[in-house]
Amino acid sequence: MDELDILKKDWQKQEEKLPKLSYNEIYKMILKKSSSIVKWIFIISLLEFVLWTGLSFFMKDSESMKKFETYGADNIMIPISIVGYIILAYFFYRFYMNYKTISVTDNAKVLMENILKTRRTVKQYVGFNLIYLFIVTFIVLGIQMNRDTQMIELVEQASANGQLFKFYGGFVLITLVVLAIVIILILLFYYLIYGLLLRRLNLNYKELKKLEV
Fold first, then answer.
1. How far apart are CA 194 and CA 41, in angstroms?
2. What number is the average pLDDT over the span 51-65?
3. Distance (Å, whole) CA 73 – CA 79
4. Do residues 196 and 40 touch, judged by C-beta distance below 8 A?
5. What is the C-alpha to C-alpha distance for residues 34 and 203, in angstroms, rounded to an integer?
6. Which of 131, 145, 175, 209 sits a CA distance of 20 to 30 A from 185?
7. Which residue from 52, 125, 51, 132 is spatially nearest to 95, judged by alpha carbons?
8. CB burial of residue 30 (10 Å; 0-12, 13-18, 19+)
9. For residues 53 and 50, what is the distance between their CA atoms, to the nearest angstrom?
10. Measured between alpha carbons, how far is 200 from 96 in angstroms, rounded to an integer?
11. DSSP string for residues in 135-153
């Protein structure tokens, strides 16, 4: 008998001594872990909102923000902000309801469906934040192009020199590069926080599939 066979027999003996968990016990463990993960998704989304709101509040007195206020664009920015807050409130509600629903789930199949719903909600939330950032960035730049005196002078100068297309092309290119860098950093942030939680939730989903087989 070689060493591998000895190890296998030894492992089988140890395995017999280990406590056998029932279906319900394993399910309850997965349910508890899943509920905890979804609760943290909800808490982190609220903390993230507080973080970005706090940063915007502290930046309110910066020179760039004060200068933007002189453009008189409240009629554009206020509705956009309201729409953004309404959609964020909707996602916070979804995260909370996902947590409440998973917490009281008493069926493995339903729990699997709720895990998938939570994953979809997180992906939609991340997608909304990135799309909203993209749209707001170009709206802000459009306002600046039309109402900032220095920018207007640069446009007029480029137009007089026959380089208007080159000026706009360079401006858009620089904006897209900066925006791409910001989006990559935000995606990295989301990957490190929500991505890790979703991976753990996905592992729970796979464990539930094994129970259902």
1. 7
2. 80
3. 11
4. no
5. 10
6. 145
7. 125
8. buried
9. 5
10. 18
11. HHHHHHHHHHHHH-HHHHH
Those residues whose C-beta lies under 8 Å from the C-beta of residue 201, and which sit 6 or more positions away, are 34, 37, 38, 115, 118, 119
Residue pLDDT, tens place only, 6-30: 544 554 554 444 455 566 777 788 8
* Residue whose tokens read 């016990």: 25
At 129, which amino acid appears? N
Does residue 37 contact residue 201 with C-beta atoms inside 8 Å? yes
Q: Quick one: average pLDDT of 129-152?
A: 89
pLDDT (tens digit per residue) in 60-73? 777 878 788 888 88
Tokens of 32: 């508890």
The candidate with the shortest Cα–Cα distance to 201, out of 98, 124, 129, 51, is 98
Q: How far apart are the first and last CA of the chain?
A: 36
pLDDT attached to residue 95: 93
Amino acid at site 112: M
Average pLDDT (141-169) is 87
Write down the residue that tokens 């959609």 correspond to: 87
